[in-house]
UniProtKB/TrEMBL annotation:
Residues 361-594 form the ABC transporter domain. This is ABC transporter. One of its GO terms (cellular component) is plasma membrane. PANTHER family: ATP-BINDING CASSETTE SUB-FAMILY B MEMBER 10, MITOCHONDRIAL (PTHR43394:SF1), ATP-DEPENDENT PERMEASE MDL1, MITOCHONDRIAL (PTHR43394). It comes from Deinococcus aerius. Its main location: membrane. It is a multi-pass membrane protein. The lineage of its organism: Bacteria, Thermotogati, Deinococcota, Deinococci, Deinococcales.
């Protein structure tokens, strides 16, 4: 049994985070996703209206059935009774038929709208820059993609049809109420404004709390996402209890918010129930007096009561639909907040063609800062096509930031970065990135097969081309040793492969893509000596004929580079070959000698 904690940690909100607007016009944007299904929606709406219209005949026929039974006591003529029952059965059958059609058609519309919305939202997320993902938790984004989109499904399908159906039922029932007994109608209709006012008052509070529930669920999902993706770190630090507590606090926060919403919904339901049945009791009292006075037949009273119940039921249903719209407003606000995000890497209006780059890269007085933190300062150098450039320097010098500017993961703050003589901002992003290959330290493989991961950069490649790339990357031997060969599933993030195997698959992937510019970001730093030698040999093959930028933690592996740039505090402080920099006696020689002594000490310890 759940026990409430004595003290719940406060929910930390970002004071600079923009508040999501709950604009009713967002519902029109949601309905735009229903346009491809408007034919099915119209048919479902018609079926709903027909079923609602048929249901209006039920009270009238039921009243006739009462009068045919009780006002003809002693009569042997059962014809009116039989005809009335047959008409009731026919109406029930038709109502059931149209109700089933409505259920299927509108469910089909809702499922299609949700699928399209999820595809649209996910596709839009993929267009946003790394800066956006650095500022947003993955768990929160996946929560919006799943839970929030699911919340709006009802509105884009059944809720609109039910709104129309309940409106028809309400108007029809009110007209028939007045026709049956004007006096009783006044008593019934007097309660309706009170019901509607209650619904709107409590409904607004439900909307606010519903948004809070969605936010708290997203926070809990974000905690779970981080813990699951980093489960090895969690377990290595025996931090299971820490993560369990962090996720538990998020669940408790969402639970308490859900309880708050449940209390408001219970208040709404209880109030509506009291108003409905209280007015029914008053109708029974007054209507019974009218029957006793001879102003109404028993059948007319029963007919009136059923119509009154229909009016109460439609008001309650409209209240529920109103609540659904309120919840959808909160969810749609979170969805459209993402859809309205625009990348800070704008595409050029008329992109310059870049079918096959030569590979020349020029940094011209480039500076870059993330927020208020400067990372690169006035960096200038020119790399001819096909040259191998090594980037070295202490941690935090700006090496990774510099190479990430080339495929436009970020844009320069000032200066110009050119590829083949044109500023990279003049090229279409897709064409520019098609010319750049990246082999990072932490290789990310997807949870498909080895073949799918190699083919990732060129989905149209033949199997022969995939195998040739794997051979060139020294990966074919270990891939062939697997029982399923190239169809072997690598697991999430390639967890079923060793570090060296993952790197060689990544190199094969880059080889198959055949980029003109290659970025190797400490691609061998996490490997043992045997794996490193195999990966290094594969990298030598990959680097041939390409402009290559190498970031390496072992300076001994870059001595053969055409050129070495030494960065410190975001500036290029030395530039030359290995021999030239050693002879100059600057920062590079200090780093090299420090690492050389460390390697000597490690060898001595092994001996």
């Amino acid at each position: 049994m759940y026990s409430r904690p004595s003290r719940l940690p406060p929910v930390v909100r970002d004071p600079n985070a923009p508040r999501v607007k709950r604009d009713p016009r967002q519902l029109r944007r949601l309905l735009a996703y229903a346009r491809p299904y408007r034919g099915l929606f119209v048919l479902g709406l018609l079926a709903t209206l027909v079923a609602s219209g048929l249901n209006l005949f039920f009270p009238l026929l039921f009243g006739r059935l009462i009068d045919a039974s009780f006002l003809r006591v002693g009569s042997t003529d059962t014809g009116p009774l039989d005809r009335t029952v047959l008409m009731l059965l026919g109406i029930f059958a038709l109502s059931a038929l149209f109700g089933a059609a409505q259920s299927y058609l509108l469910s089909r519309v809702g499922a299609g709208v949700v699928a399209d919305l999820r595809r649209s939202l996910f596709g839009h997320l993929l267009t946003l820059s790394p800066r956006f993902f650095a500022d947003h938790k993955t768990g929160d984004l996946t929560s919006r993609l799943t839970a929030d989109v699911g919340t709006v499904q009802t509105v884009t399908s059944t809720a609109l049809a039910q709104l129309a159906a309940q409106t028809v039922s309400f108007v029809g029932a009110v007209i028939l109420l007045v026709t049956t007994s004007p006096r009783l109608s006044l008593l019934t209709l007097a309660v309706i404004p009170l019901v509607i006012g209650t619904a709107f008052t409590i409904g607004r509070r439900i909307r606010r709390v519903s948004r809070e529930v969605q936010d708290r669920v997203a926070d809990a999902n974000a905690s779970a996402e981080e813990a699951i993706s980093g489960v090895r770190v969690v377990q290595s630090f025996t931090a299971e209890e820490v993560e369990r507590g962090r996720y538990g606090r998020g669940v408790v926060a969402s639970f308490l918010a859900a309880l708050k919403r449940a209390r408001l919904q219970a208040l709404m339901n209880g109030t509506m129930s009291f108003l409905t049945f209280g007015s029914l009791a008053a109708l029974l009292w007054y209507g019974g007096r009218q029957v006793m006075a001879g102003n109404l037949t028993p059948g007319n009273l029963v007919t009136f009561l059923i119509y009154a119940l229909q009016v109460g039921g439609t008001v309650a249903a409209l209240t529920g639909i109103f609540n659904q719209f309120q919840e959808a407003l909160g969810a749609s606000g979170r969805i459209f907040e993402l859809l309205d995000e625009r990348s800070d890497l704008p595409e050029p209006a008329r992109p310059a063609p870049l079918t096959r780059a030569e590979g020349r890269v020029t940094f011209d007085h480039v500076s870059f800062q993330y927020g208020d933190v400067p990372t690169l300062r006035d960096v200038s150098f020119d790399v001819p096509a096909g040259q191998v450039v090594a980037l070295v320097g202490p941690s935090g010098a700006g090496k990774t930031t510099l190479v990430n500017l080339i495929p436009r993961f970020w844009d320069v703050t000032s200066g110009s970065l050119r590829v083949d003589g044109r500023d990279v901002r003049e090229y279409a992003l897709a064409e520019l990135r098609a010319q750049v290959g990246l082999v990072p330290q932490e290789t990310l493989l997807f949870s498909g097969s080895v073949e799918e991961n190699i083919r990732y950069g060129r989905p149209d490649a033949t199997f022969e081309e995939v195998e040739a790339a794997a051979r060139a990357a020294n990966a074919h031997t270990f891939i062939s040793a697997f029982p399923q060969g190239y169809t072997t599933v690598v697991g999430e993030r390639g967890v079923k492969l060793s570090g060296g195997q993952r790197q060689r698959v990544a190199i094969a992937r880059a080889l198959l893509k055949d980029p003109r510019i290659l970025i190797l970001d400490e691609a061998t730093s996490a490997l043992d000596n045997e794996s490193e030698s195999l990966v290094q040999a594969a990298l030598e093959t990959l680097m041939q004929g390409r402009t290559t930028f190498v970031i390496a933690h072992r300076l001994s592996t870059i001595r053969g580079a055409d050129r070495i740039l030494v960065l410190n505090a975001g500036e290029v402080v030395e530039d030359g070959t290995h021999a030239q920099l050693i002879a100059a006696g600057g920062l590079y020689r200090d780093l090299y000698e420090l690492q050389f002594r460390k390697e000597q000490e490690e060898r001595a310890e092994l001996v």
